[in-house]
Structures are given as C-alpha cells and as structure tokens.
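does this look right to u?? zinc ion version
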Amino acid sequence: MEIQYLGTAAAEGLPALFCDCDICRRARETGGKELRTRTQSIIDGRILIDLPPDTYTHALRYSLKLGEINHLLVTHSHMDHFFPVELIHRHEHFGHQAKGMLYVYGNEAVEKAFYDAVLIDRFKVHPLDDAVRFVRLAPFGDFTAEGYHIIPVPADHDKRETCYIYIIEKDGKCLLYGHDTGMNLSGEAWECIFSRKYDLISLDATMGMKQIDGYHMGLLDDIRFAGMLEEKGCIGKDTVKVINHFSHNGKMTHGELEAFAGEHGMIASYDGMKVSF
Ligand SMILES: [Zn+2]
Ligand SMILES: [Zn+2]
Ligand SMILES: [Zn+2]
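got this back:
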C-alpha cells in the first residue's frame, strides 16, 4: 500500500490565512516543507481521504486525476476536511469524462453538508445523481470499496457529530488513519483498534508540544498512543508511525517536528510525502 499526504495542516492552514505569528512568519520565509495546505491523503492513488478546500491545489500540484477516483472517505464535516460545494464540478457539464460514480462516505453531518451544498438552486440544472452518491456510515459499519476493507471507528473529536477515524486493509496490509481525534476514545473504539496489527499508523499531532484533554492530540499523546498499540501487539518495529495535521498553535516548525519525531521512531508528514508500506 502507499499513502500520499497531499496536505498536512489543520483548518487554518500553515501559515494560517490571516496570521502573522512567529511560526507563520518563519514558514513564509523558509517555504518548502514548512508550508502546509489542509489535510488530505490518497491511498494507492485510488481511495481519497477528505476533501479540503485545497483539493484543487493538490490536484494541480500532484497531477491527480480526480475524475478517475470513485471513493472518497470523509472523516468529519469540518471545513478543512469537507468542502462539498466542489463536488458539483463532477457533473458532466464541468467534469467531462469523469469515470463512473464517486461514492462519498461519511457521517450524518457530512451528509447534511453534502446535500446543503449540491442541492442549492443554481446547481439544480446539473443534478449529480449519475456522478456523485452519498453513502452514510454507521460506527464500526465496515464495507468494501475496490477491494479495500474499511472500518469507520468513532473518533474523539467534535461531539456534535460522529467523527470517524478509519482502519483500511488490503492484501494483508493495514493502516490506521487517525485524523482528527484525541485519545478519549470509547471502550468499543479501543477494542476495535486493538483488534488489528498495523503496517502504518497516522496520528493527529495538531497540538505539538501542548496537551489538551481530548479533541486533538499533541506529540506526547502520540507517543502514548503508539505505546498502547505496541503493548497490545498491534504495532511492531516495522510499523511506520506518522504524525500529521499540524497547526501553528502547536508552535513547532517542520524542522522541529522532524527532529522530535526522529527521536521517537516517527515520521513528521509534509505536503506531498509518500510512504509505501
Ligand atoms: Zn482538521
Ligand atoms: Zn500563525
Ligand atoms: Zn476537525
């Protein structure tokens, strides 16, 4: 399996849109890996995870053929993960020769955002019925898409909706995609997570060296999370451990994140990073 991190920032981007803090200023000056667009990933070039406002930029930057993608997993309805009005452009009128159906998987809040965006009056002349279809997920309601077995696991994030992190497996390989979440998961969620052995784990690192109790994780939580998985035998020395979804409020540059991650056997993601596992 291969995962490509198309964007690696939290909601405000890094540098943040309207921010002139020290981290954002340094990111603008240094450029390169210090610049982050909103979090989005793609598995084997086939399964897209999340649809941030930067999807268009990612398609240009990484030559993505989004018209050939048939499955979009959405973690939750926050704007940095789901910007649904863009889906209008998969209609034949805008997206010529887009192949087959794009199935969009998500919770009830994602479903509402989806219909609120695609059913607005000015797009009614271009109904999406033959181009995009929404599939509502239930907690632990696993399904198969293009041979990938996918389990939506309820996250510890915005309590107003059932945010999901995902377990994705294919051909004996298994990935835990953990964005966005804190560590206060339900017993059922931990049990589900502990039921697998992972080749790659991707952990929320929004808070950097800071710590909050739930909603997002910081680097110390990531170490604790990985430690718990190790204790349960879910990860081993060959498991790739990635930290991802960074905010300027975590107050760390990519260079600092990279150094910290390296000391703890982890990899700090950056935009465009590909990992095969
Ligand atoms: Zn986010
Ligand atoms: Zn800033
Ligand atoms: Zn979020």
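Residues 76, 78, 157, 180 surround zinc ion (ligand 3) (CB under 6 Å). idk if thats expected tbh
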